Amino acid sequence: MIRVRFLTPDGDLACEAEAAPGDRLLELGQAKGMPLEGTCEGQMACSTCHVIVDPEDFDRLPRASEEEEDMLDLAVGATRTSRLSCQIVLDPSLDGLTVRLPSEHRDMQGR
Fold first, then answer.
1. Which distant-in-sequence residues (6+ apart) come within 8 Å of 44 by Cβ?
2. DSSP string across 44-96
3. Is the CA virtual torsion 19, 20, 25, 26 positive or negative?
4. Closest CA to 68 of 59, 78, 77
């Protein structure tokens, strides 16, 4: 199992979760009640599932595609280490990954 820590925008622990290899960070976060909307269902037509990856963990992720970089340009509160959670497929090399929720996010479904 792969352990992931979700932090609040203030840096407090929101929850810790475990996932199987191949699971997406988006689905794990949603299952734990994190406000990661993912309206586009992984098709990268929105930026409602962006997270801020801990700088110490950022280099463990595969490089973002050009399409993901374009979507991150639209994300509210994006930083240098922001990524779309729908594009992060968990594998053992990401065990202990820590991500922070952005202080704001676009809620396309009005929640």
1. 67, 68, 71, 84, 86, 87
2. SS--TTEEEE-HHHHTTSPPPPHHHHHHHTTSTT--TTEEEGGG-B--GGGTT
3. negative
4. 78
Q: Are 43 and 86 within 8 A, CB to CB?
A: no
Nearest to 107 by CA among 41, 45, 52, 38: 38
Quick: pLDDT tens for 58-101.
999 999 999 999 999 888 889 999 999 999 999 999 999 999 99
Compute the C-alpha angle 61/43/109, nearest 5°. Answer: 105
Q: Is 11 helix (H, G, I), strand (E, B) or coil?
A: coil
pTM: predicted TM-score of the whole model, two decimal places: 0.88
Task: Give the torsion sign (CA, 60, 62, 65, 68).
Answer: negative
The CB density around residue 32, as the number of other CB atoms within 10 Å, is: 15
Q: pLDDT for 12-34, tens place per residue?
A: 999 999 999 999 999 999 999 99
